[in-house]
Automatic annotation (TrEMBL):
The chain crosses the membrane at residues 90-112, 118-138, 159-179, 185-205, 226-249, 269-287, 325-347, 359-378, 390-413, 425-450, 471-491, 506-530. GO terms for cellular component: plasma membrane. Gene3D superfamilies: MFS general substrate transporter like domains. Pfam families: MFS_2 (PF13347). PANTHER family: MAJOR FACILITATOR SUPERFAMILY (MFS) PROFILE DOMAIN-CONTAINING PROTEIN (PTHR11328:SF24), MAJOR FACILITATOR SUPERFAMILY DOMAIN-CONTAINING PROTEIN (PTHR11328). Keywords: Membrane, Transmembrane, Transmembrane helix. This is MFS transporter. The keyword Zinc does not apply. One of its GO terms (molecular function) is symporter activity. The keyword DNA repair does not apply. One of its GO terms (biological process) is carbohydrate transport. Belongs to the sodium:galactoside symporter (TC 2.A.2) family.
Length: 555
């Protein structure tokens, strides 16, 4: 390699024997892509190490200088750890409460309301949900790309955080207030359009909000802590809403011993949820606005949004192999979530025979699970790389909720089993712990991928990275919701059914789909997560290279 001021600075890498290599190999890399022409020794060392990490090379030689992962880590760890104020993390998380109130309201109750109360065919109800997920999914990357390129006094994210809350509130109210006496066709169209508008409005908030969480900190562990608050509050919004709904709104009455089948409370319930969500979302935007000056800004030379630039943004994101494996994994995971989400209330109501009074206590199982994620995810990331955490907790998330259903199919458990409800809550807590830690880990890993893409392309893409992932998830959740509706039709599950009146063979098939078939995509996801390659050392190398580049550029 020529001197630091030379035009052609070719780095000769000596790759040690490893997987796929039976002996030492030689590779040449142009350092100009990784550091400025006048780089000093420290900048060169950082650049060399990041190339090593990106190539999955354990050691390399630069002339007479030998650089190893341990050398780099000791240098990187010498710096101070970035910590965010508790207030910032709290109010960032509050935005997820508003999000999840609306999503849980529609996700948990809308299909049951339209199918079992209004009498809409299960296939049409499932198709309406699927259509909304599909169309909203394509809006996500557009919103992400727009957000990444937005300039102004509110930065890249907050303009959208202030814009979205009112449409969100109006849309959730509309979902549960269809025109009286509507035909099946009108009900289907109302359901599909109102849910689509609701989901697009949620994306207008959720995509910039997640991107904000990814860029609030540049520290490997602090990112996980920030996103732990997001994850816990996501649970708190959905679980709290469900607890209040089952305890106060859908109470059992002599006419409706299963309170969820009472049509009267649904309209006022939607109004309350919409207004509560609007207040919480606005509070999150307002009380995190003080972070705007220190957040990354769109480069002045970044072209304005256009269809061509949008496609380029998506291409940069999809060009990252780690990101692609996370997308593929989430595709399969979302299929499992979509099917289980559509069938969960059916299994609990008709197979286990649980009442609204019993269902409300499941909040404690979810509290244990998501509390585990909130308290211990960052600590687990300190002990194990995020990759191994993703594998372990994807398996737990897939298998945990399926165990009681398998026991039910084999006759070990039944609706008559003493202490059934506490047992189901215990298994629920295991599944929720898996979901919580997995979600925090993946969201934190996406921020690490944003660093890699900034190093490769010179622009941060949190909006595109989080939103393109949402696109894959929603397309697949649409498929999952459609499969749930199709499964209800295929097993001949009766509309407006009463607990105790559904044939045993129909219930067996219902639980087989939810407990056995839905687990398979989740286990496939765990295999895909094993292909993720960003280690702690590789993250630190990328971070150091970015710091060296910014120092050289005076930014």
């Amino acid at each position: 390699m020529t001197g630091p001021s030379g035009r052609n600075r070719i780095l000769t890498l000596i790759l040690a024997p490893g997987r796929g290599r039976g002996k030492h190999a030689v590779r040449k890399v142009d350092l100009g892509a990784f550091c400025p022409l006048d780089a000093n020794a420290a900048q060169l060392k950082a650049a060399v190490r990041v190339i090593s990490g990106l190539a999955d090379v354990p050691t390399m030689n630069r002339g007479a200088v030998h650089i190893s992962g341990s050398d780099f880590m000791s240098s990187a760890q010498a710096g101070s750890v970035e910590r965010l104020p508790l207030r910032t993390k709290f109010f960032f998380g509050i935005g997820s409460v508003g999000d999840s109130i609306v999503l849980a309201t529609v996700g948990s109750y809308a299909m049951l309301y339209y199918n079992q109360i209004l009498g809409l065919n299960a296939v049409l109800a499932g198709l309406a949900v699927s259509a909304s997920l599909f169309f909203d999914g394509f809006a996500d990357p557009v919103i992400g790309s727009l957000s990444d390129r937005t300039r102004g006094r509110f930065g890249r994210r907050h303009a959208y955080l202030f814009l979205a809350p009112v449409p969100i509130a109006l849309s959730v109210i509309a979902v549960f207030n269809p025109p009286p006496g509507a035909s099946d066709l009108v009900l289907f169209l109302w359901f599909a359009l109102s849910v689509s508008f609701m989901r697009i409005s949620i994306s207008l908030f959720n995509t910039p909000h997640l991107a904000l969480g990814g860029e609030l900190s540049t520290d490997y562990i602090e990112r996980s802590k920030v996103l732990s608050w997001n994850n816990f509050f996501t649970w708190a919004g959905g679980a709290g809403m469900n607890f209040l709904a089952l305890h106060f709104v859908f109470k059992a009455t002599p006419e409706y011993p299963r309170g969820l089948l009472n049509p009267e409370p649904y309209g006022p319930f939607a109004v309350g949820c919409g207004l509560a969500a609007m207040v919480l979302l606005l509070a999150s935007a307002w009380y995190t606005r003080d972070q705007i000056p220190r957040l990354p800004k769109a480069p002045e030379n970044l072209p304005r949004f256009s269809p061509l630039e949008f496609l380029k943004d998506v291409g940069k994101a999809l060009g990252n192999r780690n990101y692609m494996w996370l997308l593929i994994a989430f595709f399969f995971l979302s299929m499992m979530i979509g099917v289980r989400g559509g069938l969960n209330l059916y299994v609990n109501t008709f197979f286990w025979g649980l009442t609204s009074e019993q269902l409300k206590w499941f909040i404690f199982g979810s509290f244990v699970g998501y509390g585990t994620g909130f308290l211990f995810s960052a600590r687990m990331h300190q002990r194990l790389d995020k990759r191994l955490n993703m594998i372990i907790w994807a398996v737990v998330f897939s298998i945990g909720p399926a165990i009681p259903m398998i026991l039910g199919l084999t006759g070990v458990l039944s609706s008559e089993t003493p202490g059934l409800t506490p047992m189901l809550i215990a298994f629920s807590s295991v599944g929720n712990a898996g979901a919580s830690v997995l979600s925090i880990t993946v969201m934190s890993a996406l921020a690490d991928i944003a660093d890699e893409n900034e190093l490769a392309h010179g622009v941060r893409q949190e909006g595109v990275l989080y939103s393109t992932r949402n696109l894959a998830a929603k397309i697949d959740q649409a498929l999952g919701a459609a499969l749930a509706g199709l499964a209800l039709w295929a097993i001949s599950f009766p509309p407006k059914a009463k607990p105790g009146s559904v044939p045993d063979d129909v219930l067996f098939n219902l639980v087989f789909v939810d407990g056995i078939l839905a687990t398979i995509p989740g286990l496939i996801a765990a295999v895909c997560y094993a292909r993720y390659k960003i280690t702690r050392a590789r993250f630190e190398a990328t971070k150091a290279a970015l710091a060296a580049r910014k120092a050289a550029q005076g930014t």
